[in-house]
Amino acid sequence: MSDGHDEHHAHIETPAPFLFCVATAIMFIGLVMATAGGEDKTGDTGYWFVFIIGLIGIFTAFFMWVQDYWNLEGEEDEHIETYHKFWDTISTRKFGMWIFLLTEVMVFSTLLSAYLRYRASMPDYSPDIDCGLYFEDCWVPAADVIRSHLIFGVINTFALLLSSLTVVLALYAAKNNNPKAVTRYLAVTFVLGAMFLALKLWEWNEMRHYNFWDESHNGCDVLAGQSIADHCIAPKYANGFWLDTSIEGSTFYITTGMHGAHVFIGLIALGYLIAKSNKDGYNEENHETIELFGLYWHYVDLVWVFVFPFFYLY
Amino acid sequence: MLRSKLIGLGILLSIIFAVTAIPTGETNPGGIDPSISTLVEANGCSCHNIGDGDMNNPNSAVILNLTMPSNFSAGETYTLVLNISGGPNDIAPMENGPNMGGFMLKVSTGTLTPIDDNVWKPEDSSYLTHTGGEEGQGGDGNNLREWSFNWTAPDSDSLVAEFMVYGNSVNGNAYEDSGGMGNSGDYWNSGTFLLAGKNAQITDGSAHGELSGPKKVVYGFGIVFITLAVVVVGYRMVDQDESFEEVMKSYWKWIYPWLTTTDHKYIGTLYIVTGFAWFFIGGILGLLIRWQLYEPRVDGDFLTYQEYNSTFTMHGTTMIFMAAMPIIFGFANYLIPLQIGARDLAFPRLNSFGYWLLPTGGIVLYMGYFTGGAGDVGWTGYAPYSSGASATRPGTDFWVAGQLMLGASSTLTAVNFLVTMLRMRAPGVSLMKMPLFAWSILVTVFLLLLSIPVFTVALILLMADRTFGSLYFSGPDSDPILWQHLFWYFGHPEVYIVILPAFGVLSEIISTFSRRPIFGYTSMVYAMATIGIISFVVYGHHMFTTGADPLFRFIVMLTTMLVAVPTGIKIFNWLATMTGGSVVLNTPMMFSLGTIITFTIGGITGIILASIPLDIAFHDTYFVVAHFHYVLIGGTMFSFIAGVYYWYPKMTGKMMNERLGIIHFAATFITFNAAFYPMHNVGISGMPRRYATYDASLTELNQFISIFAILFGLAQLIFVYNVFYSYRNGKEAGDNPWNGWSLEWATSSPPPENSFIEIPTLLDAEEEAKKSE
Amino acid sequence: MSEETKTKNSHDEHHDHSFPNWVTFGHTDDPVDGFIKIFAWLVFWTILEVLAIVQEFDSFALNMLILFGIALIKCWYICSFFMHMTWDPPLVYQTASVPLFFLAVLFLAVGLTTPGAVDDLATICGF
Fold first, then answer.
1. Looking at this predicted complex, what is its ipTM?
2. Most-buried pick from B144, B201, B338, C70 (CB within 10 A)?
3. Heme-copper oxidase subunit III family profile domain location, by residue (chain A) (predicted)?
């Protein structure tokens, strides 16, 4: 480790982080003013333009950032020495990704704890409990709204599980020096992820507009609130199930929404991977980025493994 | 010898003088003297208040309420209702009754007309008052707390009518004795109510078209800056015969590296400078608070009550997130790679990203000042106030958005540091051989990693409530305590995040200037790790008055008291280090000693607050404010100022002026204690925190506090001057001016572009010391 | 190209990706085949939990046991195999277990302290 390394250790200069942050600030200013500004404080719609400018800036900065990696053979551009056993058993970036995933664990745990708190504070709906005229004293879960159309949630679950598999297969295709297969598997992953998001948005729309149960209400007297098992929905949701309807709605949409946002960010990163794979190809020597992405993607799948039963089934 | 004895005697006498000068808390019967003419307007309802200290001062216990329409049409007549509550007539039984209260009301425009026997309008006057006070008068206005009357609007509905009300609340003990004039123990208060016409606008207390205070400041600075820029650029163009493009290019060449650097030393410098700049902004906000609290004030006297709420909110948020944490990250960025023998952090671009989120996030945070009021929800943002309509809008939304950015910055920086410190240590730098500052940063980033995401989610839930109408905190069945749990789950580790690096700095400085390694290194490491882990369990002590689960409160009280044990171990270890060493009393060391004293006092009040019964009495009083300022200023700020004096030679290659440093220390230490110690007394007397005014009996103490707070702020200018002066004219520092032995002293001052050409190997402290002898 | 990834690769080649026999219904040398079988297990457990819920058992405890238990099982599959933890050095699973204590504090303190919560803290501890 001598003088040949000096030029490798010159510090990188890049305006991308600075621009990313400026764009983020502009985006937030636009968003806040567009939703809470103006004379009556309910939103000054002219500011949506500022919001869009901010978003464009963020994407531009993102592209500038990955520009450094785009032209490298692998994404590892710096040799980082390590001198301590145990801590050097995995690569720096893999270790970094695992540490980052710890923060994500805390994010979803917070959402689930808040859900647990609210859910545990009220009895679940059951015909023998007095739930109040509008079922305000009971928890009428999103699962009951979804129950008659559960198949879509199950399809989404399978889609996500399958996409985890295809990411692993992409990684092993790279290890086996099959760059074309890598691109194909990554593309399938993208399609599955996009399908997940599309189906979720459709589901949300249906739930919001009270489309998720039989128009004739299966002979239910909605006001009297018969058994949920008969797919009658309590008057609580007579006008649809949305995040401002009730706490059940707030917890459902915010939790699944945060999960969906993480899928979306994953798809953006995946877009880069597919483009890079198409251009240069990942192979036996360079595939670490797929592995890192895979860890993130499997984590997103893992969150769904907990969200699905506790929001869609129960 | 004689000289130092004289200095010591002088300091001792100053301390004795300062202690005896603390006022005893009796009010000064100077009172308020507004310059208006009628009897009541000059002295309030004080004619009902003879012989008691409260004679001339309004009492905030009396609450006035004027029921009026939301706006008026020209020429219409409205029936208004005035109601008085609070004060001694709320305390049953009345000593002599049934006298309840009285009032006087006048209005700036329009006409007042009584409609019943309880209210009358004296001849040749335009104000209304209650009946029953004069001989031969009918009516029972003296025995009421509520009066109705008519008001006819003026002919123009683009005016704003201002109702000025004086109301009093009596305890009925004077009816017989003083000819109906009242006696001691009565309270009175005054208030202003604004009623806008249909076409008028009430703007935050300022006339239409006038700029708000913060806008004036920013525009003022902008004008000054632009003028200076024009002058400087123009001068350069003329003097050095350059074109405008050439001048701009040379400035660009200077600034571009700062915008694009990923070098930990530059980013560290950026963090420190930015942190101190925001520290001064937060300090000015603090001085605004102290000026508001100089004496009891009515709404709008100096600040409106809502502006005051914004002031303390932004003061807290700025100090924690924009000052303390950046300064910590700055020192960590600069020193950690040097101390562990690494070339840079593991992810340099991420480091830059983490830094730039700071000034941009700060701008978003402060945008509220340009849009009708910055966030006014307290730095703790309690729901349902923060999720409801009364909080400033969009100021509070900007407050949330800014903190989302700052939270992202801290999380990513934490990831960066954890990976760096665990993986990139040089040979010989095993974990148990790392300097204690490095250990403190390791524990700190671990806490950051796990607590900031919880706060980020809480902010997102709050934003969802405010923007999308979700019902986490704002619905009829929502649980505001959820917000408190989520906030304090983060909030308590957060305060350990700002104090642990201070402990690290103290360890470095104390060991270097005691000329020996820290006593009990291993126990210091375990103490910090223990503090870190326990800090997640104790957060409930901020929620003792919420009616939380008794078992939860019990566990929290025990663990909060328990966390004093490792902290105490650290303090005793520092003392033991000094006892066994040969102490050098220069500026960094003096600040460190000052820290130990003030932090210990703060820690003791912390243990007091840990006890549930005591906390129930002290919660939300100035006792708490005193506690946390003692640990935050006395702990964090003093340590990092010591850190600046200690590492400035390494970062700039120049020594700071020692004499100015000692003067700075003396001024800071004295004014800090003088300003914040009496807050304990004031808090025990019941002064609530976050109130824009207070009971008049505490005026003198508050004036004392405010004066010394201003002096404390002024004392910091000595420090600023020293920093800038020494950069130009300081003595050359050399590589190791303090004869320290951690790795940062093994490289040049300032360190070269590549911090280490060759990764060094860490030797034992004693071997290093032998080398330098 | 970079020595670090090279080192990691050779590390991979040294251990074969052996799946437990019961997972793959017999030994397999092909990791791809192994992962496909893991996926099949995940689908199986998903179908099982959906069927269990559709039964609408009366007992709250039973429902919780099934849902939580199956979620943990699926979590084990994803973490051990897809996220490679089975074959990773101890640093990985030690890192991954760090949040467990903090999660427990979060769920117990935030989740179960409303009065009368399904199993609120006080009741659990017999207060």
1. 0.93
2. B338
3. 4-314
